[in-house]
Amino acid sequence: MEPEIQHKIEETVIEILKEADMAEMTEFKVRNMAAEKLGIDLSSSEYKRFVRNVVESFLLSNKEEKDEEEENENEEEAKKGGSSEKEKEFDDDGDLIICRLSNKRRVTIQDFRGKTLVSIREYYEKDGKQLPSSKGISLTTEQWLAFSKSVPAIEEAIEKLESRLN
After folding, report:
1. Burial (0-12, 13-18, 19+ Cβ within 10 Å), 150
2. pLDDT of 165 higher than 60
3. Beta strand extents in 49-128 (DSSP E only)
4. Last residue of a domain, which of 38, 54, 80?
5. Among 16, 56, 100, 128, which one is least packed by beta carbons within 10 Å?
6. Considering the entire predicted model, what is its pTM?
């Protein structure tokens, strides 16, 4: 692939990504939009690989920028004598513990095969370690968003049931 074409594709892909709703955008959509804008067929494996690399680089640079911003915010809060959030807690697998529902149940955020999962799971103790059991559920970010949007309706249903019982 010619460097000039690479540069044009890279610029176009980045422009598309900067304007995109990242919750809805896929690599396939980006590649098709870039192909349409440039009038080039980007369906060959060489172009697919190149576009994937540009998308991954863009996402990494955005993540690094966000991490840097968070770090700066946390440093500023620390200088003021406060803390912007409670100390993060991780389990033995490196998963972020969001909350403990009981001494045997917790909500964690984990990375599994490149996907972020919200895991609500029971744990058991073995050799002094807390290990996850098969009892529980792991939700993708899309499933979690659908569930979290339903929380007000769930709370309302709970209130109705409790008022009938009382």
Report:
1. exposed
2. yes
3. 89-90, 96-100, 105-112, 115-126
4. 80
5. 128
6. 0.46
